[in-house]
Amino acid sequence: MKGYLWERYREAKRSTEDLVPSIMNNLLNPDAIFSNNEMSLSDIEIYGFDYDYTLVFYSKQLHTLIFNAARDLLINEHRTLKNSVERTWPCAWHTDVT
Questions:
Q1: In a domain? residue 67
Q2: Which residues are identified as catalytic?
Q3: Which residues contact 12 (CB under 8 A, 6 or more apart)?
Q4: Displacement of CA 8 from its chain's centroid (Å)
Q5: DSSP codes joined into one string, 34-91
Q6: DSSP code of 58?
Q7: Residue 83 lies in a domain
Q8: Number of domains forming the structure of the chain
């Protein structure tokens, strides 16, 4: 299964790399922080964020707050996870593979 997932990841990465001109890759600083002001979050129903302690330290209370807020939104607004309201499964619903 792991090999299958890595192959799907590499396939998706290859298909998106073709969309970005190679000259753009040389202009990007991989150590920089970027912002995107070309879109409005009000146009997006669900979005995630990178929660990896890069810039700040998070308290245990914030972990619980974020988990509960995301869970409640998914259940109440999007009718997902109806039977999974127990806090016995991991907080992360998606993990980067890079």
A1: yes
A2: 50, 52
A3: none
A4: 17
A5: ----SS-GGG-S------SSSS-PPPHHHHHHHHHHHHHHHHHTT---TT---TTS-S
A6: P
A7: no
A8: 1
